[in-house]
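Supplementary Text 2. Reproducibility record for the structural model of the 826-residue chain.

All settings were left at their defaults, and a single model was retained for analysis rather than an ensemble. We include the record here because the model underlies the residue-level annotations in Supplementary Table 4.
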Amino acid sequence: MIRSCLFALTLLLPFSFVLAEEEAPEPVAVDEVLALGPLPVDAERMDKAGHADDLRRALVGQLGEGALPRPGEAVTAFGQRSEWGAVSPSSTGSERRLQLWWFQLETERFVRGHLKVEDLRNAVVFVDGRKVDASDEGHALDLRNGSHGVWIVHEGSTEDGEPSVAWQGRSGNDRAAAHTRSERRVSAQRLTNAETVGDLAISPDGRYLALAYERRDEAAGTEIRRLEIRDLQTDRVVRQWTADRPAALAWSPDGSKLAVQTGNSLWLHERDSGKARALLLEHEGIGSWRWHPDSGSILFNWVKKDEAETDKRRRLRALEDRWAGFRDLSQLYQVDVDSAIVRALTAEERSVNLHDIVDGRALLSHNVIDYAAPPHGLTRVFEIDLDNGQQREIARLRQFNDIRYADDGYWLLAGPGLSFGDGDTTPEDVIPNDYDTQLYRLSTDGTRAVSLSRAFDPAFSGIERLADGNLLLSAVSGEESVLVHYDRDAEALNIVDSGFSVVESFVASRTSPPTVVARGSDADAPQRVHRVGLDGETEVLVDSRETAYPDVVFGEVRDWSFTNDDGVEIDGRYYLPPDFDAEKQYPLIVYYYGGTVPVNRQFTGRYPFNLWAANGYVIYVVQPRGAIGYGQNFSARHVNAWGDYAADDIVEGTQQFVQAHDFVSEDRIGNIGASYGGFMTMHLATKTDIFAASISHAGISALTSYWGEGWWGYSYSGIASKGSFPWNNRELYVEQSPVYNADKIETPMLLLHGEDDTNVPVGESDNMFTALKLLGREVEMVEFPGQDHWILDREQRYIWWDSILAWYDRWLKDEPEWWQHLYPES
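Retained model, structure tokens:
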């Protein structure tokens, strides 16, 4: 719901107008707080006992988790009932009893100042879950644009004191308003700390569901993980325990045991008795395991680390030899459940991957070094007899994603360019995009593959064989990630209504019909877990909106598509701020895909659109040509194009979007992309001046250096630049490389990169940074030490997100203060 009055806290001037700096502005008093207490805690004894700070932190952590307090809500402790109530700080008595105050500071831009807390005994202040130390000036705060929860734990007023709380900004621009409404905008911490389900496992009979939950307690600074077994018939939790994050979990085929891998150990939990025992204890490198169908054993991969490294020199014997762990060997093993005796099933020269088990046979694959043809690698698919270890080779494939047993032959996921398949539906003179994965029926001898999805636009990403012989697959369908049911008798592919736009993962029972459980989210709704019927009926089992975001107000997400000059419909959507007012004008951020997968409608992720919208931006997500999931003719525009079609669609889409929406300022448009999308940001800057600020994360500036230096550059280019190399297509590798056109760039550009990026080496940003510096252009570069292609470290991720918004505040809102605070000139 849009509430235009939600954040009408003070009179705010338009973003394009900056208030003049004012010296020593008057403090703004906090007239009302929500108070709880006095609590039945002897404050003096607590201080003497030695854990006062820990207890205060725990109090804020317990009461600050979940929904914000509301007047009249009660808390009962040690038999005493206390209610939250609105009070004036000055009315607090001097009785030395523990009390808790709460209010919110609302900001509409980055602000700096102090929270002044006067005449409270032993007051401890927490802001956004973290303790803030006091100085002579007060509690120093640097606050992002957003809602900031303030908790004050104290022991009543000082003798003859009159308690007060006030915000003291450093200048007239540093304004914050206090309120006690139980509503807030989303924050980076809320998005990353909310409890989510990380893994699922369903018993073969469909009755019991295992769920692995995880969340972070910001006040305690710790991760909280738990495992739960739920009876789906009674909707009762039959067992729950805390544990490390499981690497994987799966029920035995008879449903009597739940196998859980935590770290380097594999544990078995008996369903009925609740007893647990270690089947494999501290076996370093175990993983990728499956139950044998007879329930008596488990097959697993076990990695043997290469010990032959030397720090004096290293000979690279193959392109893949640059990959971390390439010289390690992962082989297939089998452990007997009763005795825990382990035996080796393979002893290959290359690491093997386990795909499926039927009766006494296992379906495996391993990579073969072979650069003869794009994408410059080969996959050998074979099966072994689990009793005698005998092997039978099935096929050697250049296009390969996954494989399962079928009654007669195999179900194969592979690209449309499969040499002995009929999956390619593009015109004769067009090269298909082999990331547009198709479903094939592969013959028993591995020589013939018949496409089952030629007339089906979604691109497959995962496959599971059901007990009735049909298939359940995950697929990219435009902006959505969907479940697809394949009926082998009808030879029909049907999208299943899961109840959300993006399916993150799914599990299915071995019954017929199966009980299917999936987890997923929507652009405007956080993660849920649904029981999904193949007939389209869904049931909500877990909803994190209720537990993690009960009082968070989000803006609307609306679909918006356009038809480009070539007559092709280009999909898209846009996000509005929570306090959206159609009579105002807002800055716009344009985002587009990286690689060749569309930007899906997941609630959050590495690029949090809802967070950007909460900071006063409209976000337009456009799906230009080249993306999979829209049909092969659409995705083929990615091959040997490197921005040709995508750039036209992004520019045209942005122009049409601005023309169609009066609330967007055409002079305040920013763009951002990552990886291939980072390349697009640089490429667009050489083509157009419609953007006022650009951001490239891990972008490619020179196709040749990425092709040779990126660990996967040659294989990605084997699809994206199929048949083209620096020696036979200089026009592509030079003219489409942004660094060779850097002199055309006038847009202020921020380059972001993980210092240890192995996919797109940091030198790609170094190239562009050097060029633009020498050209005297406006450019900044921020590296993240220890981070690879994605910024995964929690604290570094916050800085990364802050840098993005601060850059846009600087150029699209004329508010440079946040950027200057993050990156001062001296």
